[in-house]
């Protein structure tokens, strides 16, 4: 009789920035829900000033590792966590989620079967659980628009990195989240776009739902600027888009000086990155916009 193969280790990566009690609630929910997978949890405290991760400094739970970053932003915090991950699979989670039984198993099943490469659950508003987004897409101004519900798994142009599952080898192959991004903005968009262009398939599993605490305005617990958001948009554009779309992106810059944004961008490695990405990718941005009927 064959020995039953043990399930692969799953690494849950949680970036944290001034989360207050949310990170405690998220970890409690994570360990209270059922799964058939062994877990490790990597919490990346990105220079929180509210002491939200202090309780982890003396934890005796060997499933949890706390590591520190120095105000690097959400994209790099996720990369730092992934670099420490030992799991065959990684799931990026925000620090303000509530889970359901076997959510991990159901997100990983189509990945293990080779049907798709990256998955999202439905993401419900914790304050109004009937309001659920199922991945998202762009409109003609590159503004996010949540997908509506479907009964079966479906492909999505963009996935939310707040609860995103994939094999670690997939993440490593694409180079992770953009390493030149600033504090916040467009990191979910960029990695989803890159995954598709590099030949990977992103899908939503609509019968799996997690609850997410949404924060806006003054309730956002960290500071970022329009310069950060616009810089990240243009870095994404120069990394992946043709010249016509780059010019369209420049016209979308608001509340910032476009010339200054481009000057700062050109001091970075973005043009070298563009060459690498164009050489590696399977599809171009025309293919992507046509596939998902994005009018941009």
Automatic annotation (TrEMBL):
Its GO biological process annotations read: protein O-linked glycosylation
**Under which main EC class is this enzyme filed?**
transferase
Q: Kindly give the Pfam families that the UniProt entry links to this protein.
A: Glycos_transf_2
Which residues does the UniProt record annotate as the domain Glycosyltransferase 2-like? 11-169
Q: Which UniProt keywords apply?
A: Disulfide bond, Glycosyltransferase, Transferase
Task: Give the EC number(s) under which this enzyme is classified.
Answer: 2.4.-.-
Q: Record keywords: Nucleus included?
A: no
Question: What's the name of the protein?
Answer: Glycosyltransferase
Q: What is the scientific name of the source organism? A: Fervidibacillus albus
């Amino acid at each position: 009789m064959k020995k039953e193969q043990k399930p692969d280790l799953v690494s849950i990566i949680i970036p944290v920035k001034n989360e207050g009690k949310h990170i405690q609630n998220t970890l409690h929910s994570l360990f209270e829900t059922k799964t058939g997978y062994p877990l490790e949890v990597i919490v990346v405290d990105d220079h929180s000033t509210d002491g939200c991760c202090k309780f982890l400094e003396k934890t005796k739970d060997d499933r949890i590792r706390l590591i520190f970053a120095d105000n690097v932003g959400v994209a790099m915090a996720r990369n730092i966590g992934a670099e420490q991950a030992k799991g065959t699979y990684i799931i990026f989670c925000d620090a303000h989620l509530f889970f359901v039984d076997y959510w991990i198993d159901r997100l990983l099943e189509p990945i293990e079967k080779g049907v798709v490469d990256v998955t999202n659950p439905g993401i419900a508003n914790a304050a109004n659980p009937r309001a659920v987004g199922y991945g998202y897409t762009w409109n003609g101004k590159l503004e996010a628009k949540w997908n509506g519900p479907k009964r079966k798994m479906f492909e999505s142009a963009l996935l939310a990195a707040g609860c995103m599952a994939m094999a670690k080898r997939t993440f490593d192959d694409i180079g992770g989240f953009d390493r030149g991004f600033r504090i916040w903005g467009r990191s979910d968009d960029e990695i989803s776009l890159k995954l598709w262009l590099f030949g990977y398939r992103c899908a939503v599993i609509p019968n799996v739902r997690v609850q997410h605490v949404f924060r806006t305005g003054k309730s956002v617990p960290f500071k970022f600027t329009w310069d950060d958001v616009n810089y990240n948009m243009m870095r994404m554009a120069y990394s992946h888009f043709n010249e016509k779309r780059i010019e369209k992106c420049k016209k979308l810059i608001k509340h910032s000086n476009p010339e200054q944004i481009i000057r700062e961008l050109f001091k970075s490695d973005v043009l070298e990155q563009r060459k690498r990405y164009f050489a590696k990718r399977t599809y171009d941005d025309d293919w992507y916009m046509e596939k998902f009927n994005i009018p941009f």
